[in-house]
Amino acid sequence: MDYETPQFFRVMQYAQRADRDVVDMVSGNPDWEPPQALREGLRTYADGEPAEFQYPDSVGLRELREEIATRRGVDIEQVIVTNGAGEANHLAMAESLEQMSGDEVLLVDPVYPYYAGRAEMLHADIRFVPATDRGGLDPADVYEQISEDTAAVVINSPNNPLGVTYDAETVHELVAAAEEHDAMLVSDEVYDHFDYSGRFESALSVDSPNRIVTNSFSKSMAITGFRVGYAIFPHPDGPNGGLMDGARSRHMLTNVTSSRPAQAAVLHALRNTDPSYYEANRDLLRERIDAFTDALDAAGAEYTEPEGAFYVMARFPGFEGTMDNVERLIDEAGIAGMPGEAFSDTRREWMRFALVTPRVGEAADRLAAFFDAR
């Protein structure tokens, strides 16, 4: 499969050309309001002195890095602010391949295509670990695949595309597997604010020089356009400390730095947003999950029970998750989802739907009517 050519844009473009109204369930762009404090932070920044409009530190505003470090229980020297979680994952994978002993990246099948595309771009060998029937990850399966050739094991919890979360036992065993094989566990936790199961465990709960945690504020604050993410590397003064040094250089040579006004606004929002903001968004998504899974039940679909994030992956009887069928769903039902084949050859029978639209209820009705008429 060619992961270096993501299929998201192809689906979006087809939906835009459709001659009917289409509900977008492709993109992961939150449709709710960002924190009010974020808007306040932008207004305050706009009135700043000229010096505040110049380059920040390459690794990020010190105050933001301090805030992240305090919240995550790490030293500030471990934190680098990146252009979204995408760059954070790129740095983590690139430095793992550069400095660890292996040249292979271990990914979970089905995979968020950008992980695989990035691994291909970095000329890594790719090996897949299959998700369980319920969408989880069994550490025993990882142990079967990991070897001395493995430089990085990349996980995402809560997960895109399956919507599952990995519990404490799983995460601890994955870190242990990485330690045993001189590899890095790269844990992308961008959906950590969207855990409905109470099972989510950050890899930061394990004190280890063999784990890198990546995250961003794109989803939790509904600001995908701001591109403020971060990576937490092993301490530069400890084992595997060279990864942080390498990441700093790679980040600086590629970007120089990241957007200062976006960082300043995020910092203000972190300091001034009540936890109720995040809980309200979780409640909203729980309602959407209920509405959409009810429609899936009515259509006789099989689906992975969403435990986190805001995606549902489903399989419909006699209707495979190919690009052709995605286009048919757009043309005949007015719903745009992602083909399962974009995430895995083994998921060709499935489709993935993003629940970040206020029209989830309408989409559910359209879906039920489409399959009822077949």
Automatic annotation (TrEMBL):
Q: What class of enzyme is it?
A: transferase
This entry's Enzyme Commission designation comes to 2.6.1.-
Q: Which InterPro entries match?
A: Aminotransferase_I/II_large (IPR004839), AspAT/PAT-like (IPR050596), NHTrfase_class1_PyrdxlP-BS (IPR004838), PyrdxlP-dep_Trfase (IPR015424), PyrdxlP-dep_Trfase_major (IPR015421)
Every Aminotransferase class I/classII large domain range: 21-358
Report the cofactors. Answer: pyridoxal 5'-phosphate
The biological processes this protein is annotated with in GO are:
amino acid metabolic process
Report what the protein is called.
Answer: Aminotransferase
